[in-house]
Here is the input.
Amino acid sequence: MDSWFGFTHEKLDAYVVAREFLADVASMLAALPRGESAIADQLKRAGDSVLLNLCEGAGRPRGREKAHLYEIARGSGTECAAILDVLRVRRLAAPARLVPARARLHRVVCMLTALARRARGEGEGGVAAT
Here is the structure.
């Protein structure tokens, strides 16, 4: 069948940017030297977790469970940021790859923060809506 059915998560800008970040991760993983499988596995798993938990959260109704999944995705995003720092400090990835990946990741983490707040029913200032 040639028709494509859309899912809720595909409408989110955060999903698009998280998917682009996974492409950045794939590029960095392909360029890692032999013997770096532990850090490669950690980055792959954390990057996948950002996208997968974002998608699972998008499929839940509004509320604590939805917010919790967005928060898990955000936590995996901050883990990815630390892994990118490890790659930078150990000179395992070129700055030309790290800088745009980190910028995309920061954008996703900010979006996930906003999505979690919205799912909990909080306004812009972090105060529960009445």
About this structure: Residues 126-130 have pLDDT under 50 and may be disordered. Residues 11-119 form a domain with the de novo design (two linked rop proteins) fold (CATH 1.20.1440.60).
